[in-house]
């Protein structure tokens, strides 16, 4: 996985192949394929080796501040190598590799979503959130605008952008 | 472009190449490259040939109902071939083709965003929206949760999902 990260940063993850990783690592490509059946699987393990517990939720008792801290940490990862370019390549691969998409959800997205919802439930019980807000959508609604910026407009996802999004989501669109 | 759509549906857009399109169309590959310098450019023109004005905004005077109508139409496109698989392939390509990402924004995303903001401004002037909601983020906030479902969890983006997202966004997270 270290070889994957090194080579990905040198030649770009789009150009990376299992063959190239095997050659650089001085291993046979069958050795690599035995452990990682596809390029996507190798990218996903490399991604998970990076992020560890750095996206855990703080709980200072102030939900707005804690979401802000947590999402700032996420965009610091997303905005820089190796995590940012690696994650971009992984999402790209997942568009034509349903097994990879399922693994990404199971091993990365779902655990994050569970932590997010748990932190929000505590806040709701403390009266810090609208009791009518549908918490099961929290992950989509909080992270969707970041994905839109990262994958579609591809403008930088900054702390300032996160702060504006959080304010807009807490305000709500309705009267 | 008709050849692109036919061939894309047969073999999948991920496997599609300019060479394959040229062969099927009975044209030289240089003829195709002269008009479309990359696979991404060909996919984008094919996408734009499909969507026409079907994503125009209705204005019945009820912003919630009109957003609902418009986003239902968008997810009907997204959930079915040829638009859905083609758009998925295009977003995938755009992750390693910055020129394509820029063209996608300029020719597809920005015009949609401008229409969305114009319709929302009318609604705000009529007192139908929170005056504190940041309209410049409207596109990211309205479409972000759809992109999250379409690109990341890859669960079906249904009318029911759209309705839940709209209700949550109008409610807002805050007290």
From TrEMBL, chains A, B:
Residues 1-54 form the HTH tetR-type domain. InterPro entries: Homeodomain-like_sf, HTH-type_TetR-like_transc_reg, HTH_TetR, Tet_transcr_reg_TetR-rel_C_sf, TetR_C. SUPFAM superfamilies: Homeodomain-like, Tetracyclin repressor-like, C-terminal domain. Coiled coil: none annotated. Transmembrane segments: none annotated. One of its GO terms (molecular function) is transcription cis-regulatory region binding. Pfam families: TetR_C_11, TetR_N. Keywords: DNA-binding, Transcription, Transcription regulation. Residues 17-36 bind DNA. This is TetR family transcriptional regulator. It comes from Micromonospora terminaliae.
């Amino acid at each position: 996985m270290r070889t994957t990260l090194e080579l990905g940063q040198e030649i770009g993850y789009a150009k990376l192949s299992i063959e190239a990783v095997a050659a650089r690592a001085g291993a046979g490509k069958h050795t690599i394929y035995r452990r990682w059946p596809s390029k996507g699987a190798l990218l996903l393990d490399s991604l998970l080796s990076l992020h560890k517990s750095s996206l855990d939720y703080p709980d200072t008792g102030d939900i707005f501040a804690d979401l802000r801290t947590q999402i700032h940490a996420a965009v610091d990862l997303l905005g820089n190598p190796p995590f940012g370019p690696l994650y971009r390549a992984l999402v790209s691969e997942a568009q034509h590799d349903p097994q990879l998409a399922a693994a990404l959800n199971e091993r990365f997205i779902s655990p994050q979503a569970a932590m997010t919802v748990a932190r929000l439930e505590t806040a709701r019980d403390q009266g810090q959130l609208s009791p009518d807000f549908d918490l099961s959508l929290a992950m989509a609604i909080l992270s969707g605008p970041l994905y839109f910026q990262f994958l579609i407009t591809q403008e930088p996802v900054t702390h300032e952008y996160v702060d504006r999004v959080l304010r807009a989501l807490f305000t709500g669109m309705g009267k």
